[in-house]
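Data availability (excerpt). The following record was deposited with the supplementary files.
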Amino acid sequence: MARYIRRGVCNRCGDCCKPRFEIDEEAKKFYAENGLPENGQCQFLALIGGEWTCTIYSRRPPFCAAFPWHPDQLKGLPRCSYYFEIEDKS
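Predicted structure:
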């Protein structure tokens, strides 16, 4: 099994914090009941000075800090500046 190494730095495109799937009515209801944006976008993502910014970046959840951890997660995120290299085992 190939092992990948993530390279690059965040370019603040914000795409990873936006949903990449259709939000159904049940999800919209859940978001509304819990004070979350109806569009499924992370509530901590804000457009500040023309750049997408995580307003809790220094204390963001580990799931967010680790993203992306596999090349497949970059599909559909053409603006993301991260890329992967296959680990050289020589």
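Summary of structural features: Residues 4-86 form one domain.
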